[in-house]
Write a structure and sequence with these properties.
CATH superfamily: P-loop containing nucleotide triphosphate hydrolases
Structural class: mainly alpha
Helix content: 40-55%
Order of helices and strands: HEHHEHEHHHHEHHHHHHH
Shape: globular
Strand content: 5-15%
CATH class: Alpha Beta
Number of helices: 15
CATH topology: Rossmann fold
Length: 312
């Protein structure tokens, strides 16, 4: 077993070889898509799973930030069906804002390539809040959640964590992208991503371009406590690699007992909207300098205010 502090890592996984004893290098990911959450990672999973080997059956193992104590054997079991010709990766949006995950990946797979995608921070936080509330992960309204759920704001420290990954792994191993580029030209976005990770280019089909896992149709849960319990049980089942049970419920009418059925999400108040822009502006300005991209639309609420005025 691996300790959470990584003290047993070197004995379980060769630090320089990047593999467990007796396990070929190909059984560990060559690349990670680290999010942050709500930046098209579900879409990327749907696209890339046809061309690379991703964890199976779990979509997100959360090994490097949550389940590290379960050991390298537990992690490698998610790739046991891969062969030596597969390019292996992991879609892991919770890793972005985890300094611990960053350090562990750098030590365990020092040659790993990392892709991150940055989205308008206010839009992303609203989407992440809706997802977490719909699945019973948090009990609060949006304005309470902003102050009480650290992940909402921490995962929006784009420049801070981008620099951490660049310093830890090396700038050439970290590929920062923009969600707007994905939206405006998905094929160009995918071409750049697969070039970076070392995968031959492929052509997206019309069905590939559709949205995956959008939060716009989500609502508050009908019963917060029932939904929260179901989510917690699903997490425990996935940790025990019993994903087929979770998938069975997700693809059955039983899902309606736990997801949805409550009121729609209210619009963010003007005061709260402006506060979010103020909170995120320093990080956005620093990201502009790093990427050498104009992100003015992320720094000021002008467009959002016009949209609100049009709606009224």
């Amino acid at each position: 077993m691996l300790n959470t502090d990584g003290s047993m890592l070197d004995s379980a996984v060769g630090e320089t070889s990047g593999r467990a004893p007796g396990a070929p290098r190909s059984l560990l990911p060559a690349f990670f898509v680290i999010g942050p959450p709500r930046t098209g990672t579900s879409w990327l999973h749907a696209i890339l799973k046809e061309h690379v080997f991703l964890p199976n059956p779990t979509k997100e193992t959360r090994f490097f930030d949550t389940h590290f104590h379960r050991g390298i054997g537990w992690y490698l079991a998610h790739y046991q069906r891969a062969n030596n010709t597969d390019l292996i990766g992991e879609i892991a949006p919770t890793y972005f804002a985890s300094a611990t995950a960053c350090e562990r990946i750098a030590r365990m797979i020092p040659g790993a390539k990392v892709v991150c995608t940055f989205r308008h921070p206010v839009d992303r936080v609203l989407s992440l809040y809706r997802l977490k509330r719909a699945y019973g992960m948090i009990p609060w309204g949006l304005e309470q959640a902003i102050t009480r759920d650290p992940e909402l704001l921490e995962s929006s420290r784009y420049a801070t964590y981008l620099k951490l990954w660049q310093v830890t792994l090396g700038t050439k191993q970290v590929f920062p992208t923009l969600y707007e580029d994905l939206q405006q030209n998905p094929q160009s976005y995918i071409d750049a991503l697969v070039d970076f990770v070392g995968l031959p280019r492929f052509t997206l089909t019309p069905s590939n371009v559709r949205k995956v896992n959008t939060s716009t149709t989500l609502t508050h849960p009908r019963s917060y406590y029932r939904t929260r319990t179901a989510t917690a049980v699903a997490d425990r089942l996935k940790a025990r690699r019993l994903d087929f049970i979770v998938a069975g419920v997700r693809n059955s009418p039983l899902l309606k007992l736990f997801l949805g059925g409550g009121p729609t999400f209210a619009e963010l108040s003007l005061e709260a909207l402006l506060r979010l822009y103020d909170l995120f502006r320093p990080e956005v300005e620093e990201l502009e300098a790093i990427l050498k991209r104009d992100l003015s639309a992320w720094k000021f609420a002008t467009a959002a205010l016009k949209s609100m005025q049009t709606a009224t």
